[in-house]
Amino acid sequence: MTRRTFFALSAFLPAWLALCAPALAAADASSPDENRLLPTPDLVLEIPGLGPCNDNPDRRLQLRRGEPVKLMVHGCRGSAGEFRSLSRVFAFQGQQSACFSYDDRAALDDAAGGLRRALQQLADATPGSALTLIGHSQGALISRRAVSTQALSIPDQAVPAVELVTISGPFAGIAAAAPCGWTWLHVLSLGLTAASCRIGTGAKWTDISAASHFIRAPGALSPGVSRHLKIDTDERDSCRREEGGRCVESDEIFSLAEQRSPTVEADPRTQRLELQAGHVEVVGDRHIEPRKLIALLQREGVLRQAAPSRQAAFSQLISRLYGPARKD
């Protein structure tokens, strides 16, 4: 390879490494009265990786034994605080939640192993509690892996009974990461491609392309999984931020082709649904209300329906947590 080709290739590498959605701005509100509607806690847990859906240093979980728990897993460049407002939406309906945090640059199997162990400890500590695992984006990949037979190689106990919900997961591999999986290019670039992929994404660089073993062999769902609700997002023409009527920050991160996987969808417990929503829009942030996702979760029984007498208050809550009516 000539020196000119070498440096030309170097110039293109950063474009291949734009593999994550923009970091979500955590939505919040000044009066979290929703917590009073939760079951009274009778248990305090300290489980590695698990904690409340916020970014506070105190990661102890306070839960009620026997009550359902919604466990949420953030995506690339995210944090537990990403789901702060969604956890309050659940709380308004009397539903407990928790969030799993992981090293964003770790190999995805390592993150899935940590989630698997956290799930088991949570199940052991809360017997009789129905568990729902909800993962967004990269968190969707990690969540499914954690409850798959492929993860049985992780030294651990069997997967506990759990319902799985994945949102905008790139189960076919990330198109922008394709060069990271081209072994011929690793040779041609004298290792530059592999080095750049590792620098840009960390140890997970070998897991995120369509050619990776992680994507090609996702494993079957474990017997403990009752259902996999697979929510794909049609993100075409979506915009996260506009100025003067023009889009200055696109919300199109993964195409439907990147989210579709015949192997993942072949399991009879997998129910695929599609939403026309941007990658950030679907879960919401400080400026976007995730009403499409909330309505879908209600229809599917993941989030309880608001009683007729509380519908107006429920709608106001969403506006207060996410939208223009939000107060800091």
Automatic annotation (TrEMBL):
The keyword Signal applies. One of its GO terms (molecular function) is hydrolase activity. Residues 103-158 form the DUF1023 domain. This is Alpha/beta hydrolase. InterPro entries: AB_hydrolase_fold, DUF1023. Residues 1-25 form the signal peptide. The keyword Magnesium does not apply. Keywords: Hydrolase, Signal.
